[in-house]
Amino acid sequence: MAHDRTAAGRGLGELRRIVGEVQDPVVAFSGGVDSSLLAVVTREVHGAAARAVIADSPSLPRDEFAAALRFGESHDLSLRVVHTAELEDPRYRSNGSDRCAFCKEALLEAVVSDPSLGNRTVLLGVNLDDLGDHRPGQRAARDRGARFPLVEARLGKHEVRALARGLGLETWDKPAAACLASRLAYGVAVSEEALRRIEHAETALRSLGFAGDVRVRDQGADLARIEVPTDRFDDLIARRTEIVEAMRDSGFRYVTLDLEGFRSGSHNLTVSRDQVRTGSPDAPTTVP
């Protein structure tokens, strides 16, 4: 932990320097720890000239959207809400392993077409540890001129959390929360109905005491695959009747527990190593 704090302390100065070099930045804000840190530092460096943007997308849970708006208000961010149209893109709806690229394209298109934001450089809260997974959205964003200041400052997830804690940001220990579309197995079509079903199911699990790292994965054929940390298995089994009922109320017919437990991006186990390499913007060894 001490090493994390030391590395983070060095990285904060570098992050401020990198952000300061960007003229007219706009931070793509989601309310997570990475984008929260980046938005607050950008606001600190650029003052009132800094901007942040959040996509009011069907793939963003409503409670996450509301929490992000509250964070923006409490930290004096100039936060603009844009509406994205990824669900109108058949490439996105078909939910191939490159789905994230089309989502990022929709976000950047919404920024570019907004008269108050169009000429700004988009900054994304991507950290070093994000580069090893299959994330085609990162390449799509970089190809369109977006920058990843946390990566450029050599900050991984532990350093980001240490910095956010040091700056007093309430999101410093917030669990990772990928978009709702990431809960759908590749090939299961993305629709507003499918996203709401996932949101309803995960909200039900949290109401039963399973907050934090929890996922309901839609495997298709009305099958829900629940991921919780392995040390919560006994708790989940003890409440299995309530959980099965909640999943069926959400629209699932079959309910399973993943015996490997919670892990981010588990659907990417179906993606080949070649796709992982080409889906990320750069391998960690070639980060600027």
Based on the model shown, name its key terms.
four-stranded parallel β-sheet, disordered C terminus, three-stranded mixed β-sheet, alpha/beta, 7 strands, single chain, 10% strand
Task: Give a written overview of the molecule.
The radius of gyration is 19 Å and the shape is globular. Helix 2 (33-46) packs across helix 8 and helix 5 (99-112) packs parallel to helix 6. The chain has helices spanning 2-21, 33-46, 62-74, 90-93, 99-112, 136-143, 149-152, 157-166, 192-207, 233-238, 240-250, 273-279, and strands at residues 25-28, 51-55, 79-82, 121-124, 215-218, 223-227, 254-257. The longest helix has 20 residues, at 2-21. It contains twelve helices and seven strands. The protein starts with a helix and ends in a 9-residue tail after the last helix. Strand 1 (25-28), helix 2 and strand 2 form a beta-alpha-beta unit. The chain is an alpha/beta fold and 288 residues long. The relative contact order is 0.14. A four-stranded parallel β-sheet has the order 3-2-1-4. A three-stranded mixed β-sheet has the order 5-6-7. The model is unreliable at 272-288 (pLDDT under 50).
Give, in spatial order, the strands making up the sheet with the most strands: 3-2-1-4
Order of helices and strands: HEHEHEHHEHHHHEEHHEH
- The proportion of strand residues reads 5-15%
Rg over CA atoms = 19 Å
The percent of residues in helical segments reads 40-55%
**Main beta-sheet annotation:** 4 strands, parallel
Q: What is the tally of helical segments?
A: 12
Distance between the ends: 26 Å
Question: What is the number of beta strands?
Answer: 7
Global structural class: alpha/beta
Shape: globular
Mean pLDDT: 89
Detail the poorly predicted runs. Answer: 272-288
